[in-house]
Amino acid sequence: MKAAQLVLRSTLASAAILAATGIAHAQEVNLYTSREPGLVEPLLEAFTKSTGVKVNTVFLKDGLAERVASEGESSPADLLMAVDMGNLADLVDKGLTQPVESQVLTAAIPENLRDPGNQWFGLSMRARVVYAAKDLEIDQITYESLADPEWKGRICIRSGQHPYNTALFSAFMSHHDAAQTEEWLTGLKANLARQAGGGDRDGAKDILGGICDIAVANSYYVGLMRSGAGGDEQRAWGDAIKVILPTFEDGGTHVNISGAAVARHAPNRDQAVQLLEYLVSDEAQKIYAEANYEYPVSSGAAVDPIIASFGELQVDPTPLTQIVTNRKEASALVDRVGFDN
């Protein structure tokens, strides 16, 4: 009997120690994300292998904020992951996130790529670049010069209301006033070779087809095309272009991000922070670069060779939170100049 009591006391003591250290139960974290499964799963598998923490993932193509808001305080969501700075800002505006104080995160992520109140953090970048015909004698360009008359009838771009372009136009407004931005958009529209529309890869396709000489598009699509991930036809599109990293006249290259935030009512907050910190590690940043040809946010992480071939990326220092505040006005300007008509 005494032996049994000793075993019981020992078991209870061990349980208390485990509870105090946060490992009394199998550890897990619930991730809600709008990123494609094929891009996220390699990261999550590596995280679980490294830490033993299980990741339960809910993939949502649309309506991430609406889903979490509808679940309220009982939401099981721990970490919210999204593409586009605007989507992350919307999560904050709707009161769905909480601040995270982490030296790991602030040391790895440049200040302009995270929320000043530490509500969300950028995890990877895609640059808004220029695709150009390979035989075109040009190796540098500014965003401002895209409205110059020399490009009349020579530019392809997707809808001005697409988030990729709204973000770029919002960034333009951070360097110029609204009147200058409207004038620039009017000039850019006048230079289009076809109606704004399609996708970014269509810009490369249309350059190969002789429809336009340059296109405004995202950097990572070049990796997807040239790697053959999209098939031989898209490889030919990627091989038909060269990539130029544009800059603002008084700044650098515009980037958008994928990022994440800890949910306001996260039941597994510690594990959520642990996953967030893992995502800025060199191991995870390398996976980002390989899985989707994105730029790592951490300066110590390697860039995929296809993306590195574009040259050194000088990220525009404008805080993303400042760019986000211009979205509504930039969208209104797109309609005012009839950019998509």
From TrEMBL:
Asked if the keyword Signal belongs to this entry, the reply reads yes
Q: What UniProt keywords are attached to this protein's entry? A: Signal
Against Pfam families, the record matches this protein to: SBP_bac_6
Judging by the UniProt lineage, the source's domain of life is Bacteria
- Please list which residues make up the signal peptide: 1-26
Q: Does the keyword Signal apply?
A: yes
Family in the record: Belongs to the bacterial solute-binding protein 1 family.
The name of this protein is Fe(3+) ABC transporter substrate-binding protein
